[in-house]
């Protein structure tokens, strides 16, 4: 029993009957039971399970026909404000408004437009024709064929049609830039001499520019020296094969030693070998200090 005394309110689970199917079939008994549930909601003491049954019934009623939903809305209008607020917390605002006020025309249109937008966002294939809005006027200067849109800009440095990059040919073609760089370096040296007597900050910037130029020159000289070593080895193998001998291929370690020998000879010729060796020893000592364990690690202090 759903609408009896207080003892009858706390019925067992076997006594609970799901009347939603009966309501969908339009049974009068189910309607009476449903109204009884609404009236029992006004009692002060109510079992939690009965409230859950009511929420389930109301949710199923929202999905019914319009005439049944109109009766439900009329029954909900008689409920106290506290119970209406409790129902809103249980059902959620969206479902409660739909059950309490009914689905308006604006709500239906919004739902239909949302479904249309979701349908339009679906991927229909990459080869389908492009859809353009008819509300926007078409330009008279639009490209009819996509290939006539315009010339595509390209960078010849990274284009295969410009040929392969050959550093030796590049250096030969742009050798005049070395003279311009040398002149620029001389101008910077003169400028830093003048600025040292004036603005020290500007002089420091110019000195930094000169250091970058010297580093680039040093790197380029080392690269040329390595290329010269490889060229000499290649020519020696060609000469050896011309005399009927087998070519000799050096390992990377052997080529590295040959480059170091050439580098030391050049430094000795320029009287820079001692300075280079001191700087090298200082760098190696710094590396050894990093590898050496600290006092805390050596004696177990934390």
Q: How far apart are the first and last residues' alpha carbons, in Å?
A: 76 Å
Based on CA atoms alone, the radius of gyration comes out at: 45 Å
Strand percentage: under 5%
Q: What oligomeric state best describes the polypeptide chains here?
A: single chain
> What's the helix-strand series?
HHHHHHHHHHHHHH
How many β strands by DSSP?
0
Query: Quick check: average pLDDT?
Result: 74
Number of domains: 3
Instruction: Count the DSSP helices.
Output: 14
Question: Low-confidence parts lasting 5 or more residues at pLDDT below 50?
Answer: 1-24, 27-32
Structure class:
mainly alpha
Overview of this protein structure:
InterPro entries: RRP36. Belongs to the RRP36 family. Its main location: nucleus. It contains 14 helices and no strands. With 302 residues, it is mainly alpha-helical. Helix 6 packs across helix 7 and helix 10 runs antiparallel to helix 11. The longest helix has 43 residues. The protein is elongated and about 110 Å long. The N terminus is likely disordered. The chain folds into three domains: 98 residues, no CATH class; 82 residues; 36 residues, no CATH class.
What distinguishing features does this structure have?
14 helices, disordered N terminus, 302 residues
Question: Would you spell out the secondary-structure blueprint of this structure?
Answer:
Layout (H helix, E strand, L loop, with lengths): L5 H4 L10 H5 L3 H13 L7 H15 L3 H11 L4 H11 L1 H8 L4 H17 L45 H7 L2 H20 L4 H43 L9 H18 L3 H19 L3 H5 L3
Helix pairs in contact: 6-7, 10-11, 11-12
Family: Belongs to the RRP36 family.
Subunit structure: Associates with 90S and pre-40S pre-ribosomal particles.
Pfam families: RRP36
């Amino acid at each position: 029993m759903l609408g009896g005394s207080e003892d009858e309110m706390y019925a067992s689970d076997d006594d609970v009957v799901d009347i939603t199917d009966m309501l969908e079939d339009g049974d009068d008994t189910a309607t009476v039971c449903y109204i009884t549930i609404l009236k029992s909601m006004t009692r002060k003491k109510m079992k939690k399970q009965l409230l859950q049954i009511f929420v389930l019934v109301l949710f199923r009623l929202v999905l019914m026909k319009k005439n049944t939903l109109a009766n439900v809305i009329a029954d909900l209008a008689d409920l106290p404000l506290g119970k209406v607020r409790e129902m809103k917390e249980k059902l959620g605002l969206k479902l409660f408004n739909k059950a309490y006020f009914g689905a308006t025309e604006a709500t239906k249109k919004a739902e239909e437009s949302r479904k249309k937008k979701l349908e339009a966002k679906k991927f229909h294939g990459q080869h389908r024709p492009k859809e353009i809005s008819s509300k926007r006027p078409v330009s008279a200067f639009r490209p009819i064929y996509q290939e006539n849109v315009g010339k595509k800009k390209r960078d010849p440095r990274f284009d295969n049609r410009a040929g392969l990059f050959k550093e030796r040919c590049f250096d030969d073609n742009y050798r005049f830039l070395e003279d311009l760089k040398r002149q620029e370096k001389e101008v910077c040296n003169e400028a830093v001499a003048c600025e040292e007597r004036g603005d020290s900050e500007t002089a420091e910037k110019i000195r930094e520019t000169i250091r970058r130029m010297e580093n680039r020159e040093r790197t380029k000289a080392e690269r040329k020296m390595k290329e010269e070593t490889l060229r000499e080895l290649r020519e020696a193998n060609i000469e050896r094969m011309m005399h009927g001998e087998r070519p000799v291929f050096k390992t990377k370690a052997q080529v590295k030693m040959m480059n170091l020998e050439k580098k030391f000879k050049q430094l000795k010729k320029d009287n820079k070998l001692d300075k280079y060796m001191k700087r090298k020893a200082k760098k190696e000592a710094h590396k050894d200090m990093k590898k050496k364990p600290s006092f805390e690690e050596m004696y177990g202090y934390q």
